[in-house]
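Practice problem: predict the structure.
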Amino acid sequence: MTQKVTYKDAGVDIDKANTLVDFIKKKAKQTGTISNIGGFGGVFPLDTKDMKEPLLISSTDGVGTKLNIAFLMNKHNTIGIDLVAMCVNDVIVQGAKPLFFLDYLSISKLENTIVEEIIEGITSGCKLSESVLIGGETAEMPGLYKKGEYDLAGFSVAIVDKEKIIDGSKIEEGNVILGLASSGVHSNGFSLVRKVCFDILKLNINDYIEPLKKTLGEELLTPTKIYVKSILSTINKFQINGMAHITGGGLAENINRVVPSNLKVVINKDSWEVLPIFNFLKEKGNIEEKEMLRVFNNGIGMVLIARESDSKDIIKHLESLNEKAFKIGKIAKKDSKEVFEFV
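Answer:
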């Protein structure tokens, strides 16, 4: 064999990857990084002088099959917001302030437009969460993904003083449960969403759905809401005894993760605005209410648990930050094995 074979012949373009690194460096600078993107490790200056016992809190997550919606729409500039949101919304429930973020992008073939759109979204998410994008990894894998497809993972690191950590240990009987509105489906339950919309209803991604007042794709690709700034502001003003990010498992399986074992969660039906997308999925997919509660956020993306006496002021404060907040339930003494009650 006389023909010379290169990495590019195998489907991996090193020169294109290097060009994208330069683009990523510019975007990362906008988030305040001092790290030399393209190096072997990200650098972050850690300031703990005002903390007695600093603790680092970390989280990693992906976007799941919501990526399929981005593929169908050929729209990739918001999926990075989802990636950041799924990580930072997890760390803030312990009262931690996000510090820095890293991403991992694996793609069939590096296409500058697609990758640049993804990075734009990640950068936006970092700004919204006051996180610094200090690095990441981009892998071209033509033998693993179909053309135009990719996968994403993210990694967030946050910090909290040990004496200020919110771990649910202060939750008491009679505490109220406050719910913050979600922006839509967020990034959970999309396998069921796709089953209903595409397999059962045979809808097209560009179909206009009257109850939603927008196309199906526009609704489903709505970015996950990032609650960082609102939560940090609230915990600085009020005593918050527990928080839960409503992701996979919905209200039914996330709130009780932070509630002491001798207590239970009681959620009041019809106490918040259920977004049209959830009513649409429930009706058209013939999904039982119990299943809806354990799969989707149903309009509540974040939960705060606090004293009843503080609840009105907390809601008023959240509303001043342009959050929709609702009193959706209470903490009660557990009188059976049930840890969650929907009334």
